[in-house]
Amino acid sequence: MNRGSGDQPDALCPIVDLAPVADFLRQTSPFRELPAAELEEALAALRISYHVHGSSLAVEAPEQGLRIVRSGAVDLRDGDHKLLDRLGEGESFHLGGLNADRGDVSAIVIEDALLYLLPDAAYQRLRGRNRPFDRHFSSQRSRRLRRAARHQPAANTLLQGLRDSMSTDLLTVAPSDSVQAVARAMTMRRVSSALILEGGALAGIITDRDLRTRHVAEALPASTPVAAVMSPAPETIDADSTLFDATLLMTRRGYHHLPVTEEGHLAGIITSSDLILARQDDPVYLVQHVSRQDCAEDIREVLAGLPQLVLQWHQAGMRAPQLGRVLTAITDAVTVRLIQLAEAELGPAPAAWCWTAFGSQARAEQLLGADQDNGMILADDARPEHAPWFAALARKVCDGLNLCGYPYCNGEVMATTDSWRQPLSQWRETVRRWAATPTPKAVMRVSIFFDLRAIHGDASLCDALQAEMLQQASQNSIFLAALAANALDNSPPLGIFRRFVLERDGEHRDAVDLKKRGVLPLTDIARLHALAHRITAVNTDERLQALARERHLAMTDSRNLADALHCIQQQRLQQQCEQLLRGDKPDNFLNPRGLPTMAREQLRDAFTIIDQAQAALRLTYRAGLG
Fold first, then answer.
1. Percent of the chain at pLDDT above 70?
2. CA distance 503 to 510
3. CA 308 from chain center: how many Å?
4. Is the distance from CB of 353 to CB of 382 less than 8 angstroms?
5. Burial class (CB in 10 A: 0-12, 13-18, 19+), 201
6. pLDDT attached to residue 5
7. What are the start-end ranges of the H helices in 120-242?
8. DSSP H or E stretch at residue 198
9. What is the pLDDT of residues 30-86, one digit of tens each?
10. Which among 190, 194, 172, 183 has a CA at the least distance from the CA of 220?
11. At the N or C end, where does the chain have fewer CB atoms within 10 A?
């Protein structure tokens, strides 16, 4: 093979031993998705070439087709020499396709590289025959992360989407229809509920129980309009939710029927008979069991098996975003029950108040090992003599959480700290002070506060505080710049040639901190954009979706960031489960050298997306510091 440099193309050679190449392709997307016969056809057509550092490939090269990086690294650059992408082992590119889309793209070898070439005729035949193969090359690189997530099975029945279980054959009636007519229609259709529509919109619901308690028991005439006995403006759930989401909502509210909407329109109904609650390994069972305990010690016993349940859920296919919501729901249930037990001991609250979660609990993104981040918002009519009651409740709840496996916050971001337990007016003043003097140390300490969610009590207090927070942040470019500076402090662990930058010494030598170098930068980026544009969503996925929906973030960028978060969280979950199997304490440190090739490349892609998003952040917000 020619070992020249510069623009001289290297000679293409046939591959003598196809067995290792086949093994490599079976680990490389999208070849691993090909049927055996089509993979054999691709192998037979492959050629190999060696390229030294500095050599280049252009669309005018005599041999065209799909090039796959077997080793080394390649930069893709446009006519102005701007870097478009950097590719490593297992990644592929087709210069003809790139030039058709962008024009004047070339490939520069930045590390001595072995490349496989699938000639254009064979490549196009495969695209024509195999839709997933074709779709891979029609989509952006980040979609590989999304497709990998979609190929995972649902963990269990409760983690399946509502669409497969909800009823769409709905009985709908008008508000003026008589109770007798509606009851007759329910009997004929053999359903236990009817939905009342007015002007095409959902106005109410009537169930068998409503007929008993509001009509028969009250001895109302059969001609009574159904509007007089229906449950008006019923709560609904989105069709994209899971059976777990529906079960949790119905259990908390005592519902037996829950209308399902899609893009704001009635799409179906889910009933208690659709939900399976008996299995002890279902998350909802655990939430319900927690709510029936009479002391913190008993709650701790209920949670003793949680690590093993997490392992089971993961092995059954539950993805990190789903598991984050499940673990957060359990934390919420523990918190609420501890509050109820404290209130039973201390007596009723002397004033309105709200228990608020911060950080990962607020975002519903908890994994194992989460500590406490919480506070209390008191109504402004709370008097000084009420302070001991709220302090006592905070101590009982935080002590109970610690006993149940949620350690005290090292930074004392807890309701037991006076500055995190204030009346609403003082909280508002605190937010104004933070926005007015955003020192780097202060911003780093309080950035967690800007992810907040009501857990128990008067949620309007939390809503009011969030409204103040969004107003102060969105109109203060200096404060946003300080948040941007904080978000840029944790860079993704990639060095030159997209190599991982690992810890050099200490307990976690040769590892990457997935939380500090991956999850935190992503959540910081989403939070900053959300604050700047007054997005009320707190969950990172929901923030990114809202930013794209309101056109503050390109749809591609929104999806890229979500894909990156899911990829990193999934690797974090996988690492924690492997530690559980070994009997080790779960942490956030991963040695990427132990990952399969595909997982390692996906993780590189995820960190590359963070790096690009941070570069954009620097341009957008750091000007405020000038």
1. 90
2. 5
3. 22
4. yes
5. exposed
6. 37
7. 120-129, 131-138, 143-150, 179-189, 208-210
8. strand 193-198
9. 888 788 889 999 999 999 998 998 898 877 666 789 999 998 888 888 777 777 777
10. 183
11. C
C-alpha dihedral sign at 89, 94, 99, 104: positive
DSSP string, 299-331: HHHHHTTHHHHHHHHHHTT--HHHHHHHHHHHH
Which one, of 342, 455, 461, lies nearest residue 393 by Cα? 342
C-alpha span between 57 and 7 (Å, rounded):
7
Residue 145 has, within 13 A of its CA and on its CB side, a CA count of 26
Under 8 Å between Cβ of 415 and 406: no
Rounded to 5°, the CA angle 13-15-20 comes to 145
Q: What is the pLDDT of residue 95?
A: 85
CA–CA separation, 574 and 283 (whole Å): 19
Look-up of token digits 């119905």: 250
The model's pLDDT over 253-298, given as tens digits with 9 standing for 90+, comes to 889 899 999 988 999 999 877 665 434 566 777 887 888 899 999 9
Q: How far apart are the first and last CA of the chain?
A: 55
Residue type, 40: E
> Residue 620 in 3-state DSSP?
helix
Tell how many helices (H) and how many strands (E) occur in the chain.
24, 20
- The structure's pTM equals 0.62
Q: Give which of 166, 319, 325 is closest to 237, Cα–Cα.
A: 166
Distance CA 374, CA 372 (A): 6
